[in-house]
Amino acid sequence: MEDLLAPIDAPGLYLEQLAEHHREALRAICPVDDPVWEIYPNHLAGADFDPTFDAILATPNRHSFLILADGEPVGMSGYLNVDAAHNGLELGGTYMTPSVRGTGLNGRIKLLLLDRAFACGFTRVQFCIDARNIRSQRAVEKLGAVREGVLRKQRITWTGHVRDTVIYSILADEWAARAA
């Protein structure tokens, strides 16, 4: 687990475990009026920021990274539901500040996190995406993820919407074949 959660240093990017000292930097890049909150399971802005941030840090099987691009905070992403006994985990909990969306940065981050997970011996990485979030679905499809199905009415979001969750996965052998 230590290797999985070690900082990731790549050209122009640095990912480190989200911690209390990141609170204000993350708050500063999460605008209240960001329309993306409508399709997120939680609300990381305004009055909801502190309780949501606290919950992220307190969740035992959630390992978020603060993402720095050229030294500036631009978002977070990480591993959830890490199951070492069955060699699987979920990649998610991603938020990217509006100014970096559509730049390819999120794809670069996902590649780094996928490479790390598979290098650490995980054989399955899954993504759980709100069915309304077409942009995220297309992004993981570009990475080679396979759509496995839909969990209907699976989660109640912070808005009260009961979402359908689309499940995607990438297996270690698929990832290795992609890199070859």
TrEMBL record:
PANTHER family: BLL6696 PROTEIN, N-ACETYLTRANSFERASE DOMAIN-CONTAINING PROTEIN. Residues 13-173 form the N-acetyltransferase domain. It comes from Sphingobium yanoikuyae (Sphingomonas yanoikuyae). This is GNAT family N-acetyltransferase. GO terms for molecular function: acyltransferase activity, transferring groups other than amino-acyl groups. Pfam families: Acetyltransf_3.
